[in-house]
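tool_call: predict_structure(chain=1)
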Amino acid sequence: MATNEEALSTTDHEVAPAEAWDAIAAGYDEFVAPGEASLANEGLRLAGLKPGERFLDVAAGPGGLSLPAARLGAKVLATDWSAAMIARFEARVDEEGLAEAEGRVMDAHALELDDDSFDLTGSQFGVMLVPDQPLALREMVRVTKPGGRVLLIAYGPPAEFETLQFFIAAVQAVVPDFEGLPDDPPPLEFQVADSEVLRQRLTDAGLHNVTVDTTHEERVEFCSGEEMWNWVLGSNPIARTIVGDLPEDQQATVRQVLDGMLRERSGSNGPAVLTAPLNIGVGTK
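tool_result:
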């Protein structure tokens, strides 16, 4: 077994394989995806999605962006390289009777789709973390119709991502040697945390009339350290790598520390609300 220091180290641009995303699909679907619908609706509004339009969701996970698009009347194809994530999406589609929505397993870097096929191509918290984002963005542009739009929703600066900072602080309270996230380069999740970097990447991918909205934020409610623990470990395989080798008693202590931090934030009155800045980029092909 790795030592605490080894288990809690981070590597530059560590990329989790599809199997790692398969392993957290159930947790993502249960703990993370339900809170994404309001963000998705705002992004789809900014991108001007209309009923009947063809919408492609790239790196869709269990459908945080594509399910809201289907509910708005779009003809939806959700793609992800994790078969388990797509299975979760398809189960939701069946439950809700969304006849114009389907899922396919596909790599964002090489979309197995024809050129000029979709009115709107989007990704929420997906293409933000692929290892070759410029290539993935060019693929999104390639499959979008001339005059169509591309939408990317990603996190802003990690220092303002409160859930992440709470979690790091709680781990450091238990394992003081844990250094937290690397700064240079930052983890892939934050490669377009700078809104100007996102604007330039969308432009370089072949889009014009690019706008990046920085006025919205993610808001997540937590009633306990256990809830936050489940949310963080369900959101990304890297989180499980960071804390998975901690002994169970230390994991429990981290959750207890989180309990105290959340009570302090909420004033022991209802759930604690933690926020994260967002960059919502939209461009036209």
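agent: The longest helix spans residues 248-266. Proceeding to next step.
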